[in-house]
Design brief:
Number of helices: 3
Low-confidence stretches: none
CATH architecture: Alpha-Beta Complex
Number of domains: 1
Mean pLDDT: 91
Strand content: 25-35%
Largest sheet: 5 strands, antiparallel
Distance between the termini: 26 Å
Shape: globular
Number of strands: 7
Strand order of the largest sheet: 1-2-3-6-7
Order of helices and strands: HEEEEEEEHH
């Protein structure tokens, strides 16, 4: 298992709904390991080359990682916050992204039970970022065309080498 970087076509696909079973749970648990190994706080299945609606995250809740199958946001606050975000698929790059500060989302847990959760701050930001991956949306899609043009060289380098040039 490896992290796919900008330019990999899987990152642009809308991920498929999954059934919670031993195979998808195993994939999610492997993703948790990859997330920690890569020093990330969240990871979506498309980032490891799998078109599946699976997200793992650990916003330092002290309860261990969260594994979300088929997650979806069904409420978002009108209060928007700008914050720097990085992405394992864009090594070395951070961008300021506007996102709702609080959300309510639902998902299936490892037993296939539907759960609901309110999130704000860091957790809300991570869930929204990872859900974007499930829709084929990347952090560069949240910035203006002018900003993307300024990033063109960095993005080309990530596509070519898998990392931003120093």
């Amino acid at each position: 298992m490896e992290i796919k970087v900008y330019g990999n076509p899987t990152l642009r696909l809308k991920a498929q709904l999954v059934e919670v079973n031993s195979e998808t749970v195993k994939l999610a648990e492997e993703m948790v390991g990859m997330m920690y190994t890569s020093n990330g706080v969240g990871l979506a299945a498309p980032q490891v080359g799998v078109s599946a609606r699976i997200i793992v995250l650990d916003p330092q809740l002290k309860t261990g990682p969260l594994i979300l199958f088929n997650p979806e946001i069904y409420w978002a606050d009108n209060d928007i916050e700008a914050c720097e975000e990085g992405c394992l698929s864009f090594p070395g790059m951070t961008l300021e992204i506007d996102r709702p500060s609080s959300i309510r989302y639902c998902y299936l847990d490892k037993e296939g039970k539907r759960r609901e959760r309110d999130a704000s701050g860091y957790e809300a930001r991570i869930v929204q970022h990872e859900l974007d991956h499930l829709e084929g949306v990347l952090i560069v899609d949240h910035v203006s065309q002018a900003k993307r043009l300024l990033l063109k060289r960095k993005l080309s380098e990530i596509k070519k080498t898998g990392k931003e040039q120093e």
